[in-house]
Each structure stands twice: as structure tokens, then as C-alpha cells.
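FORM 12-B: Structure-to-Sequence Request
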């Protein structure tokens, strides 16, 4: 599988344990390289699918000056979008609790932008998944935030954790996208990447 990638050294530009596990599931050899302090800001006026693609491209472009000819770099960014508002990673427990209060009882979108880059080619895409949360009590929110410390997760939650078990009523689209990488779509793009 993915014989077309054998000429490349595949690099995942992410320290996310979830992204590492998902990419590893494809059975292709890869290594992790990250660069510190990449600017993840974006211009105002971008839509929900445009924001994470813009950030994924920005991350990819940061590697261009150090990229080797045989390297293929995968960058990604995930946002949570609720009624036109972007929820990134919370800065503290208070903000995490506030995010979960807003998500409780509503449907939001999880959008991951992915960019596949070599020295001669770049392909990017976004995958959107609708997630509906059941109403959550203050006790449930506090329990999750205190115990699981979701400050490294967009929207202050990991669907694969306790809050996903008790809070997610419905999901339409890729589950793995919500975990952090739309792996089926990435596989499809990598199959045709030359």
C-alpha cells in the first residue's frame, strides 16, 4: 500500500499523540519533526473550513526552508466551530469549563485542515464533522476538566475520553477527524500524491 510514497521520507509535523497514533495506523514509516513558535494566527473573515487549512499551510511553509528534496511533510490544525465562533485550545480550566458549557446541548463542527507538502507540490484540504453534545451538568463539566486537563485540545475536549463517552449524542462524519486527523481522507490523498 502507498508504494508511491516509498521515494519520500514521511514527516508528521505534530507532537499530538493522537495524530501520531492515527498516522501510525496506516502502516507507513514516518518520523516526527516539530518547529517551535509557529504563528497560528489567521486573517479575519476566513470561514470555518478556511481557518484550519490556512494554519496547516502556514505550518508547512515554516518547514520549506529546511525541507530536504526527499521529504514529504504532513501538517494539520483542528478547530471547533460553534455558531460562527472558533474555539481553539483553552488557556486554563476556567476557559475550558466555559467552552464545554457552550457546547453542551448543541451541535458544533470539528474542522481539521491538512496540508501535504514536498519541495515541488502542496495539497491541502479540510474535513468537517458535526458533533452533537447532550446537556451537561456543572458537576460533569468540572469532573472532566479537573481530571482530564483538556487544555491541549480544541474546544476543550477529547472525544476519545470520558466526556465523549457520556456527552456525545450524535456524530455525523469522520470520528477520527474529531480525534485530530481525518485519516481516511488523508489516506485517499496520499494514494494519489505523486
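FORM 12-B RESPONSE
SEQUENCE OUT:
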Amino acid at each position: 500500500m502507498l508504494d508511491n510514497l516509498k521515494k519520500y521520507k514521511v514527516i508528521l509535523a505534530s507532537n499530538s499523540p493522537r495524530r501520531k497514533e492515527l498516522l501510525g495506523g496506516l502502516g507507513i514509516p514516518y518520523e516526527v519533526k516539530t518547529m517551535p513558535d509557529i504563528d497560528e494566527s489567521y486573517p479575519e473573515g476566513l470561514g470555518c473550513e478556511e481557518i484550519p487549512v490556512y494554519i496547516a499551510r502556514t505550518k508547512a511553509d515554516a518547514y520549506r526552508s529546511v525541507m530536504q528534496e526527499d521529504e514529504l511533510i504532513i501538517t494539520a490544525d483542528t478547530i471547533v466551530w460553534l455558531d460562527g465562533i472558533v474555539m481553539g485550545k483553552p488557556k486554563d480550566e476556567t476557559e475550558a469549563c466555559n467552552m464545554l458549557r457552550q457546547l453542551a446541548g448543541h451541535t458544533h463542527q470539528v474542522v481539521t485542515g491538512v496540508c501535504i507538502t514536498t519541495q515541488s507540490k502542496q495539497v491541502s484540504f479540510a474535513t468537517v464533522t458535526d458533533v452533537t453534545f447532550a446537556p451537561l451538568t456543572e458537576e460533569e463539566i468540572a469532573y472532566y476538566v479537573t481530571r482530564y486537563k483538556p487544555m491541549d485540545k480544541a474546544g476543550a475536549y477529547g472525544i476519545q475520553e470520558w466526556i465523549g463517552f457520556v456527552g456525545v449524542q450524535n456524530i455525523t462524519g469522520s470520528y477520527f477527524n474529531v480525534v485530530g486527523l481525518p485519516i481516511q481522507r488523508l489516506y485517499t490523498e496520499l494514494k494519489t500524491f505523486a
